[in-house]
């Protein structure tokens, strides 16, 4: 089996699973309980929070646990919008955001907010000068993802941070789900970023856990109320075992980040250069300015899901662009925003690599690709 779908989810580290099992079986107390079992749970909870904050170079009180990227994005967009509604109801998101951001913004339109969409260029990068034109006195939130999940373009977060440097009334949110432990933290967490969303299962943690970075002094309305957990901002009994496993996975992933970037870039470039030799293949992901692990391409006239299933017959697992929308059969929203024709966008498939992948797997993939390419000759 060859697994090239790591942007959809990663295989949990054995060490992270061991931590999960140990905490779940030995520290089962509720952190909100006053007795000793609750105190033990609280110590694990806060130790995990401290470790994550340290790894990000942030303060411990700036980390809030969630159930993952979708909740984190919903909370960031809706929570900031409602918190700052008395000062303005205009928000800006980019044309290539994950549905958790884009759909949250569109939902807010029905609640009386105004939403502008910042365009991207033909390579999938937010155009900072066009974003600047959208800013208004009543703009309260700008949300831009760090690494695009469909083509891998690394967004100009630092340039946008500079643009917003003298606009302290605007909250700057970054969806960092595809960036954490993949690229340098400096690229997506400059000091001007006020909120950032992360998800454990994207860096070899377990599913159902994530966290939000919220800069000290910034305010956000809660989505979940009731129990008072996470300083009254996110009420629900904490997934303690998952949180502890997340802290362990993040430490390991960040220790291996340099090796990850180097190896994945090498593997990606071998595939990208080989695919460029096929006349009916379009490669949508570039080299410079793109994440090392994401490569998206299409075969002319062949829908992406056909290619996904063709590789599956060889036990090679890839995906159509976004895992969250792939079953809906929709063309890649990022490619449409880039100006790619809808018919061509529907051919797109995504490879997403990991440190565990190697050159022998790349060679097997390219061998099978040649067979699939020949089989689709009539369609092309």
TrEMBL record:
The keyword Iron-sulfur applies. The keyword Phosphoprotein does not apply. Keywords: Iron, Iron-sulfur, Lyase, Metal-binding, Pyridoxal phosphate, Transferase. Its cofactor is pyridoxal 5'-phosphate. One of its GO terms (molecular function) is cysteine desulfurase activity. Its EC number is 2.8.1.7, 4.4.1.-. Residues 2-365 form the Aminotransferase class V domain. InterPro entries: Aminotrans_V_dom, Aminotrans_V_PyrdxlP_BS, Cysteine_dSase, PyrdxlP-dep_Trfase, PyrdxlP-dep_Trfase_major, PyrdxlP-dep_Trfase_small. Belongs to the class-V pyridoxal-phosphate-dependent aminotransferase family. NifS/IscS subfamily. This is Cysteine desulfurase. It comes from Streptococcus viridans. The lineage of its organism: Bacteria, Bacillati, Bacillota, Bacilli, Lactobacillales.
């Amino acid at each position: 089996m060859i697994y090239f779908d790591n942007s959809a989810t990663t295989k949990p580290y054995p060490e992270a699973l061991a931590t999960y099992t140990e905490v779940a079986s030995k520290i089962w107390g509720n952190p909100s309980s006053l007795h000793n079992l609750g105190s033990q749970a609280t110590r694990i909870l806060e130790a995990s929070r401290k470790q994550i904050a340290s790894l990000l170079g942030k303060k411990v009180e700036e980390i809030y646990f969630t159930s993952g990227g979708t909740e984190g994005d919903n909370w960031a967009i809706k929570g900031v919008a409602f918190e700052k509604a008395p000062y303005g109801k205009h928000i800006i998101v980019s044309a290539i955001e994950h549905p958790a951001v884009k759909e949250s913004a569109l939902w807010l339109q029905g609640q009386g907010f105004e939403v502008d969409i910042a365009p991207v260029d033909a390579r999938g990068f937010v155009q900072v000068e066009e974003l600047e034109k959208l800013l208004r006195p009543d703009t309260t939130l700008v949300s831009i993802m760090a690494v695009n999940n469909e083509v891998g373009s690394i967004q100009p977060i630092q340039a946008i941070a500079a643009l917003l440097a003298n606009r302290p009334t605007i909250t700057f949110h970054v969806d960092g789900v595809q960036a954490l432990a993949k690229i340098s933290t400096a690229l997506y967490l400059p000091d001007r970023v006020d909120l950032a969303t992360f998800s454990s299962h994207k860096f070899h943690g377990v599913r159902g856990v994530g966290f939000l970075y919220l800069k000290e002094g910034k305010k956000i309305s809660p989505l979940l109320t009731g129990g008072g957990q996470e300083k009254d901002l996110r009420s629900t009994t904490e997934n303690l075992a998952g949180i502890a496993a997340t802290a362990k996975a993040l430490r390991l992933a960040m220790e291996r980040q340099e090796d990850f970037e180097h190896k994945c870039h090498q593997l990606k470039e071998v595939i990208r250069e080989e695919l460029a030799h096929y006349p009916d293949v379009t490669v949508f992901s570039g080299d410079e300015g793109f994440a090392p692990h994401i490569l998206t391409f299409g075969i002319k006239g062949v829908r992406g899901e056909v290619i996904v299933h063709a590789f599956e017959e060889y036990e090679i697992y890839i995906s159509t662009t976004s895992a969250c929308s792939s079953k809906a059969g929709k063309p890649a929203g990022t490619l449409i925003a880039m100006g790619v024709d809808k018919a061509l966008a529907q051919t797109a498939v995504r490879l997403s690599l990991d440190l565990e992948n190697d050159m022998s797997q790349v060679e097997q993939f390219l061998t099978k690709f040649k067979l699939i390419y020949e089989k689709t000759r009539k369609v092309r």
